[in-house]
Amino acid sequence: MNSGGAKNLRLAVCPSYHAAVELIGRRWNGVILQALLAGTTRFTELRSGIPGITDTMLTQRLRELEDAGVVFREVANARPVEIRYGLTEVGLELSPILEAIASWSNHWIDARESEAGAEQTGEGRNVG
């Protein structure tokens, strides 16, 4: 156990780090950012690629990410008007972080779900 206690904890909880984790970890934001890593896309394509998200929630989260400088919104002069979203330079810098989270989740979350499934079917039990 670390003997530094509260002093080290205060140093470890950086306000900038906390703000970044809150932004990325807010419901739907990580999925939106991951989807936008594939490139600039229209709102409807983005919505159809994220099962379960409503138009209202997607709009709200995109505005939040845009205000944070992570996502940009461009309006094309077409008929009908076409609105596209993409990652800014700041947003693109999240790529290795989002890829690391995806890798971690593929390893650990998938493993936990496999274990849970085995326990429910009795395959994971040691009997005897």
UniProtKB/TrEMBL annotation:
The keyword Transcription applies. InterPro entries: HTH_HxlR, WH-like_DNA-bd_sf, WH_DNA-bd_sf. Residues 14-113 form the HTH hxlR-type domain. Coiled coil: none annotated. SUPFAM superfamilies: Winged helix' DNA-binding domain. Keywords: DNA-binding, Transcription, Transcription regulation. The keyword Transcription regulation applies. PANTHER family: HTH-TYPE TRANSCRIPTIONAL REGULATOR YODB (PTHR33204:SF37), TRANSCRIPTIONAL REGULATOR, MARR FAMILY (PTHR33204). This is Winged helix-turn-helix transcriptional regulator. It comes from Lysinimonas soli. The lineage of its organism: Bacteria, Bacillati, Actinomycetota, Actinomycetes, Micrococcales.
